[in-house]
Amino acid sequence: MEFRHLKTLKTVVEAGGITRAAEQLGYAQSSVTMQIHALEEELGIPLFDRLGKKLVLTAAGEKLLHYAVRLLNIHDEALAEIRAQTEPAGTLTIGTPESLAAFRLPALLQEYKQRFPKVKLIINPGLCTEMRNLLRRGELDLAFLLEAEHEEEEDLAVETLVFEEMALVAAPDHPLARAEEVKPKDIQNEIILQTEKGCSYRTLFEQYLMRNGINTTQGEEFWSIEAIKNCVQVGLGLAFLPMITVRKELQEGRLSRLNWRDETCGVFTKMAYHKKKWLSPAVKEWIELVRNRAEHWRSN
């Protein structure tokens, strides 16, 4: 039993005859007649009594019409639901390190929510190594990473968005703030206020200092960049942080950027998602928005 035949049956009844039904469906009258005959042959029973030019539903026709209406309504509901899924909706779960959550994402989140208010956004902060594992387990739709260049991975699509400049900062009245150049040996006895273990730029900085024979065990560890900045401002130590996280404090004179030649390989903001996971309309729109915003980041 073909679905279009049921639709033709319903239209014939509603239109009051084959001629009007053919006009509404855009079929030739012979085509409408053939579809009704096909239903009757398949069921082995007449669906209409043909009383001259008038068609009257038989008892079997009445029963089939009842089910045809139900099936057609379900069909329309299904189409509406599926088409609704082409519009961004549902939940979008994004993983990100704290620095990007605070200094790259707010403008993105604001624009996205204005454009797609039906999408619920969930932001999961964490380390970049954790983000990769969460993507692989399907617990994140996308993740932002802040790390050095990385080898291509078979299961994850990783897009490099922008290079992140780093800064070694101190309190404005720190002696090193007045130095023409700060070298690794100059911070041998300084306390370094560090982000958590596993943080990409902390790792790069420690590796660089170790290559220059500098002991990095003396320092304090924090989970909050804001806490680090506040402690640096009151003279508790130095910090190596992404420029985007300290730009405001530098402009306001609350921190000083040391004349430090950064010879680490640098870090990049990246966007990652699983290659084999279906990209919902919400995810696709987020990816497109991030790509467009990254062009602005690079130009500045």
UniProtKB/TrEMBL annotation:
Stretch forming the signal peptide: none
UniProt keyword annotations, A-Z: DNA-binding, Transcription, Transcription regulation
UniProt keyword Transferase, yes or no: no
SUPFAM superfamilies assigned to the protein according to its UniProt record, in alphabetical order: Periplasmic binding protein-like II, Winged helix' DNA-binding domain
Ranges where the HTH lysR-type domain occurs: 1-58
Gene3D superfamilies: 3.40.190.290, Winged helix-like DNA-binding domain superfamily/Winged helix DNA-binding domain
Pfam family membership, one: LysR_substrate
GO molecular function term, any single one: DNA-binding transcription factor activity
Family: Belongs to the LysR transcriptional regulatory family.
Protein's name according to its UniProt entry: LysR family transcriptional regulator
Organism for this UniProt entry: Thermoactinomyces daqus
Lineage per the UniProt record: Bacteria, Bacillati, Bacillota, Bacilli, Bacillales
